[in-house]
Automatic annotation (TrEMBL):
UniProt-recorded name of the protein: Glutathione synthetase
Cofactor(s) of this protein: Mg(2+)
Family that this chain belongs to: Belongs to the eukaryotic GSH synthase family.
Self-association state and partner proteins as the record states: Homodimer.
Pathway in which this enzyme or protein is active: Sulfur metabolism; glutathione biosynthesis; glutathione from L-cysteine and L-glutamate: step 2/2
Length: 475
């Protein structure tokens, strides 16, 4: 089955309205753009999107491999230094994170425990549409502020409900909508880390943006923590809050607004705009120097950069970290073409390749959050007139993934009615890794996120207004 059967046109509005109300009554909501106190349903697809069962299983299986890979990269100073050397010379944001990493490394880490909440994102790839030759290719791995673990866990319920209204679900069809444990899985990761810190009075502190629209996704994690352990509390603070009320004690404990912080969870801090001044950078450094467990540490943040992703895909790089052949093969199968733009013959060759066929590639900066990638003629403009040879190292070049296109209805709060569109999807798997130095304490795959967008949009996520929450329908 390569496509869901679309509902009759006369049924679409009814199903969409029922779906909207389901979202609001089940917490699949986001803050409105124009008012912090107003909410609306999160954008969603009316139907779940077909996804090959074998490739869904592969994405889940390889997540633990990627967890280990990111962990081992974060522990390898010489590799990080070499991989990022050219980038930090021209990319001010990456250089700032690297500076914090180096300062704390040289002073000596006071907290060897770190927590990684990762999400590895993939797209189906194949030149012949829906066929047995489809594979999954990695778009990126997120090592900081991996979002939508809260809302995505509610999506199978939404799509089960809609399909039931449409035509009644037989038991065999219900199995095609896999359970999603992302919310409870992420919450359990924080409770595990909080317990290791060793003080029931201490809290998990989520570092958040001002006027965060996606706070309800974050709230799911906060409330599930309390369900797992009644003493596991989470507080929410901005960089400004922490800068004003935070301090390091002599024993390097981090105190913010009177609370001892067991775990610092960065849901902000991944974007240069999150740092309004040098004061905010000093606040990030203070948190990194503390004995609070970081999620992520600066080292893990750096391990998730696009440049590190590109270097890891180069011949022989993975063998530095992984000896198991099965693991190597699983990881390598997900790599698409990734090319350096560093100054030198190899980077020059990449530029010529991009200029000859810009539609074949995506130009990617070292930024997270969606909406930053460069396509088509803009690649040519960027590489020929916007940046000089040295500044090319801000970017990597990635070969475009070619996912199959299906039709689905998109339901968004700002649209007067559902819109039928040609769409493509991206699936991400969440992973938890808790370590004490080199020792791995927890390594789990904990759930998934599916986002679907119209082919009219080349880039952008749910929060940036392009993608829509979805569920895989296993075929």
């Amino acid at each position: 089955m390569a496509a869901q059967q679309l509902p009759p046109e006369e049924l679409v509005s009814y199903l969409a309205e029922e779906g909207k109300d389901y979202c609001v009554t089940h917490g699949i909501v986001m803050g409105a753009k124009d008012s912090y106190h107003a909410v609306h349903h999160a954008p969603f697809t009316l139907l779940p999107t077909p996804f090959p069962k074998r490739l869904f299983a592969l994405a889940k299986e390889v997540q633990k491999d990627f967890n280990l890979l990111v962990h081992r990269v974060s522990q390898d100073h010489e590799f990080l230094k070499g991989a990022l050397q050219s980038t930090i010379e021209v990319d001010a944001f990456t250089a700032k994170i690297y500076e914090i990493y180096e300062k704390t490394r040289k002073e000596g880490l006071v907290q060897p425990i770190s927590l990684g909440i990762f999400r590895s994102d993939y797209m189906l790839d194949g030149t012949n549409g829906w066929s047995e030759n489809l594979t999954i290719k990695q778009v990126e791995i997120n090592t900081i502020a991996s979002s939508f673990g809260g809302l995505s866990a509610q999506m199978p319920g939404l799509h089960n409900f809609i399909l039931d209204l449409q035509n009644g679900l037989e038991p065999s069809n219900k199995e095609r909508l896999p359970e999603n444990t992302s919310a409870i899985g992420v919450a359990e990761g924080f409770v595990d880390a909080w317990k290791l810190y060793g003080s029931e009075k201490a809290v998990v502190m989520m570092v958040v943006s001002e006027n965060e629209k996606n706070r309800f996704d974050q709230r799911w994690i906060q409330h599930l923590m309390r369900e797992i352990h009644p003493s596991a509390r989470m507080i929410r603070k901005t960089f400004n809050d922490i800068g004003q009320t935070g301090e390091l004690k002599d024993d390097k404990s981090l105190i913010v607004d009177g609370y001892e912080v067991a775990v610092v969870y960065f849901r902000a801090g991944y974007d240069p705009d999150n740092y309004k001044s040098e004061v905010d950078w000093n606040t990030r450094l203070m948190m990194e120097k503390s004995r609070a467990i970081k999620c992520p540490s600066a080292a893990i943040h750096l391990a998730g950069t696009k440049k590190v992703q590109q270097v890891l895909a180069s011949p022989g790089a993975l063998e530095r970290f992984i000896s198991d052949e099965d693991m190597l093969n699983r990881i390598r199968r997900t790599f698409t073409g990734l090319f350096t733009l560093d100054e030198g013959p190899e980077g020059d060759k990449t530029v010529q390749m991009a200029l000859a066929d810009p539609e074949r590639f995506v130009l990617k900066p070292q930024l997270e959050g969606g909406g930053n990638n460069i396509f088509g003629d803009d690649i040519v403009k960027t590489l020929t007139s916007t940046v000089d040879v040295k500044e090319r190292s801000k970017f990597i070049l990635m070969e475009k993934i070619k996912p199959p296109i299906v039709k689905n209805y998109i339901v968004r709060a700002e649209l007067p009615k559902p819109v039928l569109a040609d769409v493509l999807s991206e699936i991400g798997c969440f992973g938890i890794l808790l370590n004490r130095g080199d020792e791995v304490l927890v390594n789990r795959e904990v759930g998934h996120l599916m986002r679907t967008k119209s082919t009219a949009h080349q880039d952008g996520g749910v929060s940036s207004g392009r993608a829509n929450l979805d569920s895989p329908y296993l075929v």
